[in-house]
Every structure is written in structure tokens, then in C-alpha cells.
Amino acid sequence: MKLKKGDEVIISIGKDRGKKGKIEKIYPEKNSVLLPNLNVFKRHVKKRDEKNQGGIISFSKPLDVSKVMFVCPKCSKQTRLGYTVKKNEKIRICKKCKTGV
Ligand SMILES: [Zn+2]
């Protein structure tokens, strides 16, 4: 997975298409990322007792990485990520402006 926590991405498909968010969490094994307050779903929770009143709770579902596009912090363009090796170090680069990100 090329994306990492804190990356800005734009959602390219679905109900939140065109919205931007910062990655809060990544799930490499599921190839998905969590964006706070985006891809929000509501769930009804039953009242269990006086402390747990129940009601409707909102929560963000992780999005598949194929549904988001990386937004380059250097050139602000939606882009793909690549890698380059400089001085034996693997550097993540923006494919549009070729800068390390
Ligand atoms: Zn760039």
C-alpha cells in the first residue's frame, strides 16, 4: 500500500465523490483507508438499559484504496504515487511533479 496515515485523498466514486479527507487509519490487509467524517453510515442501536439509551449512531466505514486518489501536497493535483531510489533510499514520489512526498 502506497498511501499512509495523514495523506490527503479525494474520493473518486460513490456518495462522497469529490470530497477530500485526510487518512486517519490504514488497513493494509484490507487495502482500505479510514477518512474521518467521510463514507459515513448510520446504525440503529437498540436500547439496552438506562445507561445505553440506544438511538442512531454515525460511523465512518473504511474505503477501498481503489476508490480514492492521492492529492499531492506539493502540486495539489490528483495523482498516482511512484517510487524512486535515491542514495539507496526508497522515496515515494508524485508522478505528476516528481517530487518526494
Ligand atoms: Zn505533485
TrEMBL record:
InterPro entries: KOW, Rib_uL2_dom2, Ribosomal_uL24, Ribosomal_uL24_C, Ribosomal_uL24_KOW, Translation_prot_SH3-like_sf. One of its GO terms (biological process) is translation. GO terms for molecular function: rRNA binding; structural constituent of ribosome. It holds the Pfam family ribosomal_L24. Keywords: Ribonucleoprotein, Ribosomal protein, RNA-binding, rRNA-binding. GO terms for cellular component: ribonucleoprotein complex; ribosome. Residues 2-29 form the KOW domain. SMART domains: KOW (SM00739). Belongs to the universal ribosomal protein uL24 family. One of two assembly initiator proteins, it binds directly to the 5'-end of the 23S rRNA, where it nucleates assembly of the 50S subunit. Part of the 50S ribosomal subunit. This is Large ribosomal subunit protein uL24. The lineage of its organism: Bacteria, Candidatus Gottesmaniibacteriota.
